[in-house]
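Section handout, structural biology tutorial.
Before the tutorial, make sure you can parse a SMILES string by hand: atoms, branches in parentheses, ring closures as digits. In the record below the ligand is zinc ion, and the chain has 163 residues. In the tutorial you will relate the predicted structure tokens back to the input. Do not try to memorize them.
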Amino acid sequence: MDDRELGHLRRCVALAREALEAGDEPFGSVLVTRDGTALAEDRNRVAGGDGTRHPEFELARWAAANMTAAERAGATVYTSGEHCPMCAAAHGWVGLGRIVYVVSSAQLVGWLEEWGVPAAPVRPLPVGQVAPGVVVEGPVPELVEEVRALHRRLHDGGRADGA
Ligand SMILES: [Zn+2]
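Predicted structure of the complex:
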């Protein structure tokens, strides 16, 4: 993981923080071209009641609308948390390239269980079980604690200590 890639992941974490502060769940993602240019970004927007408003899903649809198949195949989606099955499927269907995530779904589910949060309505399959042709990298230890702290805040009534 070089500094440029870490920079994209730090932007994902900043977007996740922005989502949390807006009352959404702390997830953020950035779509980057083969040559390293960030083309689009988004954050979680489920607070309005539409549980499909995940950033990775939005970026997959943005890529389908705005990039050629070759450009999509060469692109990387950086994200604060591993794609859920819905987003992994969208990523696979539109033929996007690599995924780099900070925390895995397994890590997140482990923390949520530890904190007594009820299970999500969708099984937390890893990307590889949904879109087996996609190259996936993560977790990224340098940023894991920062992302964990954002999720801790979401499920702890706004306590800021990340404990
Ligand atoms: Zn998702």
